[in-house]
Structure formats: structure tokens, C-alpha cells
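Revision sheet: C-alpha cells.
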Amino acid sequence: MLALARFIMASRARAALVACAGNLVPLLSPATVALVALREGGREASLVALWAVLPLVAMFYAEGMAPLLVWASLLTVAVVMAGALVLRGTASWQAALLTLVGASAATALAIGLLMGAEVAAFGDVLEAMFAQVRPAGGGANWQPDATMVLGLLAWVMAVSALGGLLLGRWWQALLYNPGGLARELRGLRVSAPVAAALMAGWVICQFAPVGYVAWGNLLGLPLFVNGVALVHHLVASSPRVGAHWLAVFYIGLVLLLGPLGLLLTGVGFMDSFVDLRARFARRSSDSGKDC
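Predicted:
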């Protein structure tokens, strides 16, 4: 990874090459744009982003490619660049996360306004997929509407952009600030007012019609990341807990994304108000004195 990061930052041409060819590898293209934006700023990142979207533009005109998915992939590059520029300018992961959420929601809504027919067609595709996995004679027979489709698009764009931004920030840390990303993640904490607003939106979406659940997941993304950051902090600050437990944690997260993701969102919300890091530090200090 270090060698790839050095190759990207060696010149604009090499960065453009990786951004263009990176569409064949998940997260590689947006991560390249994020790295250039974090290090060089918006002008250089825009030039590299043009090469990143070039294959996507070609795919748009290819037969058999869903225009909706192509546009979502194309706009993800813009979302990750926006998040990277905000992170570069503010050094705040909270601001970057809110930018990713807001930009993803705005682009999804724009897609809904400009591509209503494609959104409806994609809803039909989702309904056919659900029908195949639905037990015979069981489950609710409902049609995914535009609200659900756009919410799913917004969530996928935000998660993809977050993955690209994290990878780009990691590359930047490897090159110029070793260990910097780990310190940033361990210190990431969403402020209480922002957490309250996000949780309120999440709860409303959970009690709204089923099409709004994906929008709730989008709003809960910063709180989820806060929960993950808390796990990183606890592992790093616990001498008896090895770093290998992080691997176990991420394996469990992949296998149990639904329930564990919900738990992490709740824990992230609590941490914004209670500051679980400080409480854990005081408890550890008191335990050390007792020994």
C-alpha cells in the first residue's frame, strides 16, 4: 500500500492512471481522488477526478449498463472529494462525515428528480430480487418505492465515499504522518447536539414507512463510525487487549452487520453525551491505584 501511495503522489499522470484503472478495484479510484484532495487540494483533485469518471462515462453509453448505478458511481467520486476537502480544511472527522451524509443525500435526491423513470425501473428490479428470496407464501408483498431506492443509493454512496476517504487518509498517514489516522479515529467523537439531531432523524425514519429505513441508516452513519472509533480507543488504551481483537471485531461486524451495527450506533450516540472514553480512563486509573 505504501508503494502504491508513493506511485500516486509521484505525479499527476500517475495519479490519473490509478484513478482511471482503479474503477476495476473497489474503493481504489475514490481513494486516489481523496488522497490527492487531502494533500494537494481541490484543483489537482478535480483533474484526477476527471480521469476517475472517464470509464464511468464510457459505461454510461454501453449497452446493458444501468444508468442509475453508473450515475451513482460517478457521483460517489464527487462526494468523496467533497469530504476530503472538508477534512483537509477543518481537520474534523465530524465535519467530513456530515459532508458525506449531506452530499450523498443531495445527490440521491437530484437523481430522483432527473431520473424518475430509471428510479422506478430499479424499484421493479429490487422487487423481483426480493420476490426470489421471499419464502413461499410468507413475508409482506410490497413494492420498493422511489423513497427506498433513493435512500439505498444515498446510503451506498456515503458508505463507498467513507471507505475511499478512510483509505486515502491512511495512505496520506503512511506517507507523511505515520500513525496519524489511528490517532484521529481513536479521538473521533460526534458532538452532543449533532448526535441528538442525527438520532432524532434516525428514530423518525424507523417509525416511518419502510421506504425510509435506508434514510435512517444514512443519518446513523456518523454515530456508527463514532461507535467504531470508541472500540479502537478502548483496544488501544487497554494493555490486556491485543490489537488482534480488532480483526475479530471487524469479522464479527461483517457477519453480524445488522444487530452489531445497531448496537454501535447506539453506543456512538451514548458516547456523544456520556463520554465513555473519559469514564473508561477514570475506571482504569482507579483500578491501577487499587492494585
